[in-house]
Amino acid sequence: MKQKQQPLPPIKTIALVAHDGKKQALVDWCQRHKSVLEVHNLYGTGTTGLRIEKETGLGVTKLLSGPMGGDQQLGAKIAEHHIHMLIFFWDPLSSQPHDPDVKALLRLAAVWNIPVACNEATADMLLASTYMQSIMPRSLPDYDNYLADRSLDNE
Prior knowledge:
- The protein contains seven helices and seven strands.
- The chain has helices at residues 23-32, 34-37, 46-56, 70-79, 99-111, 120-128, 143-153, and strands at residues 3-5, 13-18, 41-44, 61-62, 85-89, 116-117, 139-141.
- Catalyzes the formation of methylglyoxal from dihydroxyacetone phosphate.
């Protein structure tokens, strides 16, 4: 598939997700980085978003909990180019009943070429990037061109 350029804006929309065993770690991370995060738009899955909002004072648009469809809601927002970054503190040592949803979420983040952090160290590096407050160049699949080419094939 052909690629196109679509930069990420200086004000990012950031998805915040954490498995149960990592929720407090994500809340603590958000508290430490509150001054950076409060400039951006935040989305969170169910309980994670509620805890971040309650314990840090950051505004978070809350979706359903992950197992109830929140991961899929975030995936749809990534595919629609509404989410620019994914911070997902996942617990690699615990089995997750909604693991297929998690894999689908991470796959969509890779397809649409958005920055993803799955642990605290990588999340710290993303926030320290000069691109956090500036336009970030990126390429992504040119799906509109793909559809146009496919319609020509059917004529």
